[in-house]
Amino acid sequence: MDYFFNMDMQKDTVIHRINSVMLNPDGVNVPYTIDNIQGTMIDGKDLGIDGYLDIGLIDTMKDMFVNFIGAVVFSCFGFLYVKSRGKNKIAEGLIPSVKTKDADFLTQEEAENEIAE
After folding, report:
1. What does the alpha-carbon distance between residue 87 and residue 95 come to, in Å, rounded to a whole number?
2. Residue 28, CB-side half-sphere exposure with 13 Å CA sphere
3. Domain range for residue 100?
4. Paired strand residues for 34
């Protein structure tokens, strides 16, 4: 979205330390720490930001961590469901199943309305 539609959907974060292989002054493939960053400049113009402007990586990593936690929780429910041979009611409510006529709530509601009339 950001690239193709010229939008800014990522949360910007001001940070004061980065690790970069590309900026290693020795030119070796080892992360180099740049600490105590006090400003950001583009084309010689100071942006007035008290640190380095991270344009979405930290936000994306937080999103990935939340997705990881959700996957672990759902995997635990799935494991318990399989371990209990389908008797785990919490997991049963989370796992999709094929809809049958008996479990079609819309049909049941319509039938109840017809009986009431």
Report:
1. 12
2. 4
3. 2-116
4. 18
